[in-house]
Amino acid sequence: MSASDRERWDARYADGAPGEPAPPVALAGREHLLPANGRALDVACGRGAVAVWLAGRGLTVDAVDVSPVGLAAGRELPGGDLVRWIEADLDDGLPVAGPYDVVVAQRFRAPALYGALVDALAPGGLLVVSVLAGGDGPFRAAPGELLAAFGHLAVVHHEESGGEAHLVARRP
Fold first, then answer.
1. How confident is the model at residue 11 (pLDDT cuts 50, 70, 90)?
2. CA 152, 46, 86: angle at the middle one, nearest 5?
3. Can you list the pairs that 112-121 forms with residues at least 24 positions away whose Cβ atoms lie under 8 Å?
4. What is the CA 127 to chain-centroid distance, rounded?
């Protein structure tokens, strides 16, 4: 990721409200699938709402993002002190090693990392992915992309609608 991309995300996070801890979109209504404890990874965590929500559910969370401004906002959330915040450029790969019981990538599309997300999962681990879908551009998934990338896992939920694609799956 270029310095201008980091600057763009920093500006975006500086101008917005920090938000409240919340489950990943793909997991809404499926929170019962989460383990009661274990390790979780939030990839491209932004302002950290999902990471802090996961920590509040009893998971030990690593949250990764390129933006120091986004990470600082996450630290300020109630419960933000329960998360390990990691500044890293994901274009260079995952800066952490599994196994993780939960891996979340919400509204972050990086096909080059799809294999690494699976590799980071513990056996029985839960993968939760949401991406923009349809249309053109590098940030939008083609129809069926998530199933093609992760269909070898035990898919619990898959949906493509409203300009987004969601997938929840377990590693066998």
1. confident
2. 85
3. 113/43, 114/149, 114/150, 117/43, 118/150, 118/153, 118/171, 120/41, 120/94, 120/96, 121/171
4. 9
Please name the fold of domain 3-170. Answer: Rossmann fold (3.40.50)
User: What end-to-end distance do the CA atoms of the chain give, in Å?
Assistant: 33
- CA dist 13 → 1, 35, 66, 71 (Å): 17, 30, 11, 9
Tokens of 36: 């009661």
Angle (CA) 26 28 33, round 5°: 85
- DSSP, collapsed to helix, strand or coil, labels residue 168 as strand
Single pTM value for the model: 0.93
User: For the chain, what are the domain ranges?
Assistant: 3-170
Tokens representing 82 are 């329960």
